[in-house]
Amino acid sequence: MIFAAKLTEVPFWGKKLITIDGVEVVLTNDRGKIFACENECPHQGSPMLAGIVKEGVISCPRHGWHYDLTNGASTDHPGYTLKTYQVELVGDDIMIELES
Ligand code: FES
Question: Which InterPro entries does the record cross-reference, listed alphabetically (predicted)?
Fold first, then answer.
Protein backbone atom coordinates (compact mmCIF):
# COMPACT_ATOMS: atom_id res chain seq x y z
CA MET A 1 0.00 0.00 0.00
CA ILE A 2 1.18 3.50 -0.88
CA PHE A 3 0.23 6.76 0.81
CA ALA A 4 -2.14 8.67 -1.50
CA ALA A 5 -3.48 11.64 0.48
CA LYS A 6 -4.79 12.81 3.80
CA LEU A 7 -8.48 12.17 4.34
CA THR A 8 -9.01 15.89 4.88
CA GLU A 9 -7.80 16.54 1.31
CA VAL A 10 -10.77 14.64 -0.14
CA PRO A 11 -13.88 16.24 1.34
CA PHE A 12 -17.37 14.75 1.39
CA TRP A 13 -18.66 14.56 -2.21
CA GLY A 14 -15.23 15.74 -3.39
CA LYS A 15 -12.51 14.38 -5.63
CA LYS A 16 -8.75 14.78 -5.79
CA LEU A 17 -6.29 13.90 -8.55
CA ILE A 18 -2.97 12.48 -7.48
CA THR A 19 -0.04 11.08 -9.45
CA ILE A 20 1.98 8.17 -8.14
CA ASP A 21 4.84 6.77 -10.21
CA GLY A 22 3.43 8.53 -13.27
CA VAL A 23 -0.05 7.02 -12.76
CA GLU A 24 -2.93 9.49 -12.42
CA VAL A 25 -5.42 8.33 -9.78
CA VAL A 26 -8.75 9.94 -8.90
CA LEU A 27 -9.73 9.71 -5.25
CA THR A 28 -13.41 10.21 -4.54
CA ASN A 29 -15.33 10.62 -1.32
CA ASP A 30 -18.85 9.31 -1.77
CA ARG A 31 -20.60 10.16 1.50
CA GLY A 32 -17.59 9.13 3.55
CA LYS A 33 -16.57 6.10 1.48
CA ILE A 34 -13.26 6.58 -0.33
CA PHE A 35 -12.68 5.09 -3.77
CA ALA A 36 -9.71 5.23 -6.12
CA CYS A 37 -9.77 4.82 -9.90
CA GLU A 38 -7.74 5.68 -12.96
CA ASN A 39 -8.26 9.12 -14.47
CA GLU A 40 -8.67 7.92 -18.07
CA CYS A 41 -12.05 6.67 -19.22
CA PRO A 42 -11.67 3.27 -20.94
CA HIS A 43 -14.03 4.43 -23.70
CA GLN A 44 -12.27 7.42 -25.27
CA GLY A 45 -9.97 8.63 -22.54
CA SER A 46 -11.84 11.52 -20.97
CA PRO A 47 -10.60 12.58 -17.54
CA MET A 48 -12.74 10.94 -14.87
CA LEU A 49 -11.79 13.71 -12.45
CA ALA A 50 -14.64 15.67 -14.05
CA GLY A 51 -17.08 12.79 -13.62
CA ILE A 52 -20.08 12.83 -11.33
CA VAL A 53 -20.14 10.37 -8.44
CA LYS A 54 -23.39 9.06 -7.05
CA GLU A 55 -24.00 6.02 -4.86
CA GLY A 56 -20.71 4.32 -5.67
CA VAL A 57 -20.94 4.92 -9.40
CA ILE A 58 -18.96 7.48 -11.42
CA SER A 59 -20.25 8.79 -14.73
CA CYS A 60 -17.86 9.92 -17.44
CA PRO A 61 -18.18 13.63 -18.29
CA ARG A 62 -17.96 13.01 -22.04
CA HIS A 63 -20.59 10.42 -22.96
CA GLY A 64 -22.04 9.64 -19.54
CA TRP A 65 -21.07 5.99 -19.31
CA HIS A 66 -21.27 4.68 -15.75
CA TYR A 67 -18.66 2.70 -13.84
CA ASP A 68 -19.06 0.93 -10.50
CA LEU A 69 -16.30 2.32 -8.29
CA THR A 70 -16.02 -0.92 -6.32
CA ASN A 71 -14.79 -2.96 -9.29
CA GLY A 72 -14.67 -0.57 -12.26
CA ALA A 73 -17.21 -2.49 -14.32
CA SER A 74 -19.34 -0.38 -16.62
CA THR A 75 -22.95 -0.66 -15.52
CA ASP A 76 -24.32 0.24 -18.94
CA HIS A 77 -21.60 -0.90 -21.37
CA PRO A 78 -20.50 -4.43 -20.45
CA GLY A 79 -16.95 -5.23 -21.40
CA TYR A 80 -15.59 -1.82 -20.50
CA THR A 81 -13.80 -1.58 -17.18
CA LEU A 82 -12.37 1.44 -15.41
CA LYS A 83 -9.29 0.47 -13.47
CA THR A 84 -9.90 0.74 -9.74
CA TYR A 85 -7.52 0.48 -6.84
CA GLN A 86 -7.91 -1.02 -3.39
CA VAL A 87 -8.21 1.65 -0.69
CA GLU A 88 -7.42 1.42 3.00
CA LEU A 89 -7.67 4.10 5.64
CA VAL A 90 -4.92 4.18 8.23
CA GLY A 91 -5.95 6.86 10.67
CA ASP A 92 -6.17 10.02 8.55
CA ASP A 93 -4.08 8.55 5.72
CA ILE A 94 -5.62 7.22 2.51
CA MET A 95 -3.52 4.32 1.30
CA ILE A 96 -3.98 2.66 -2.10
CA GLU A 97 -2.72 -0.48 -3.77
CA LEU A 98 -1.56 0.44 -7.27
CA GLU A 99 -1.15 -3.17 -8.40
CA SER A 100 -4.83 -4.16 -7.94
S1 FES B 1 -15.01 8.95 -23.13
FE2 FES B 1 -15.92 8.26 -21.28
S3 FES B 1 -17.84 7.48 -21.92
FE4 FES B 1 -16.89 8.11 -23.74
Answer: Rieske_2Fe-2S, Rieske_2Fe-2S_sf
How many alpha carbons lie under 13 Å from residue 100 in its C-beta half-sphere?
A: 19
Pocket of ligand 1 (CB under 6 A): 41, 43-44, 46, 60, 62-63, 65
First to last CA, the chain: 10
pLDDT tens for 16-36 read 999 999 999 999 999 999 999
CATH of residue 54: 2.102.10.10
Q: What is the pLDDT of residue 100?
A: 52
Domain span holding position 70: 2-97
